[in-house]
Amino acid sequence: MMQTIHRSIQNEDFETIGKSGIILLKWSKEMINYFPKGSDVAPSEASGDIWLDPEGFKKAVNNFELASLKLVDNSKEKNLDKTVVAFRGLARTCKGCHQKFRN
Ligand code: HEC
After folding, report:
1. What pLDDT is stored for residue 36 in this prediction?
2. Ligand 1: does its nearest atom lie under 6 Å from the Cβ of 67?
3. Containing structural domain, residue 82
4. Of the residues 94, 95, 99, which should be mutated to test ligand 1's pocket, given the most ligand atoms within 8 Å of the CB?
5. Residue 72 domain-assigned?
6. Helices marked H in 1-103 — which ranges?
7. Which pTM was predicted?
8. Which residues pair with 46 in a beta bridge?
């Protein structure tokens, strides 16, 4: 998914960027339901911190949602500079959450 977006940025394929962004946006809205308490058992890499710090996790999900939305909006404008910035911001929200909440 991130590779698809990255490649689409290089090709200035705003339609594909927008579509990918919408998939991520939907995922961000559903994500919270995929981590019920107790799902931090093997083989899952979900960290127990998700349930120790539910507010922090919600915030990370929310940052991810906002970043996806920004990517979708900027790709609609077909503004390459803004789209690149939005993509970097989005990648940071993936990494930020993984560092904190993935084992
Ligand atoms: C709010 C937290 C959060 C955000 C944001 C997030 N992830 Fe994750 N991600 C996780 C957790 C937790 C796991 C571990 C899930 C498991 O093993 O059950 C994970 C697992 C993964 C995996 C491992 C393979 C898999 O499907 O289990 C990949 C790849 C991945 N994430 C990619 C991404 C990308 C790309 C983004 C950004 C576009 C992203 N994630 C954003 C929390 C997040």
Report:
1. 86
2. no
3. 2-8+22-35+43-101
4. 94
5. yes
6. 2-10, 14-30, 49-52, 54-76, 80-101
7. 0.94
8. 102
